[in-house]
Amino acid sequence: MNRPVIIGYDGSEGAGTAVEWGAAYAARHGAPAHVVRAFEPHMYDVGLAGGYVAGDVESLRAAAREQLERLAAEAAERHPGLTVTTSLERGVAEEVLVRESLQARALVLGSRGTSSFSTLLAGSTTMHVATHAHCTVIAVPGEIAVPVGGQIVVGVDGSELSEAAVAFAFQEASESAAPLVAVHAWLDPAVTSALGPVLAPVDDPVRHSEGQDVLLAESLAGWSGKYPDVTVTRRVVHAHPVTALVDSAAGAQMVVVGSRGHGAVRSLLLGSVSHGLLHLAQCPVAVVRHHN
What we know:
Blueprint: E1 5-8, H1 13-29, E2 33-39, H2 54-78, E3 84-90, H3 93-100, E4 106-110, H4 124-132, E5 136-140, E6 152-155, H5 160-175, E7 180-186, E8 192-193, E9 196-197, H6 205-226, E10 232-238, H7 241-248, E11 254-258, H8 272-280, E12 285-288
Parallel strand pairs: 1-2, 1-4, 2-3, 4-5, 6-7, 6-11, 7-10, 11-12
Antiparallel strand pairs: 5-12, 8-9
């Protein structure tokens, strides 16, 4: 089954950019695109005693549906051969998008929506969906140009979900003829307590980085064999992973991470690195749950 690329839309300018980006992504992969908007009647509570005026809400619903159809027509015109469908779903946006992710190849949405907390680069809907979706979620900043060139960056930490991110990144790099930058960041294994450092920092950072580079090369070797057309640059950085990935992703077309890494709190579905990138990265961020 050719699963669709689901694109979340909420009427914001950033969501419009996500629709453009998601349509181009679907066209590149030969997949259909499906644009979804959640419609919650209680958001239009205009009754003096509570409730809403049905006629007004129906007008708003019709306008929202018309807007979706216009977006679909524009996307189809920009990408001949692309099938674009739409649906206006009743319900909370987070729940609607997570449900839609069950059938999706990937779910694309803006990194920030219509929330009044405009200083937050990643909105609450984006964070919720990236945490709970059943497929890869790609958060697209509203200020990027479409389409975007440049390399694809992937964070590698040796975890199972990191392996899924690497698989996704190699496939994306191959299908978009983009170079791939594999980044492994490490910190001194020192734990500070009230009594001071419990473990000593690494004595020779250069030698340690060289050892980490060997491990990184070994973890990528199988994928390089599977995708010989992909040019890979390894980058081992003595820094926090978020800092290393944000710096490496400058000018990139996408940065890819697993939804959870080697963090101590394994019950958190969205790791601190994914969380940080969704807030700080200036390019699309792909959060990979698993990769088929």
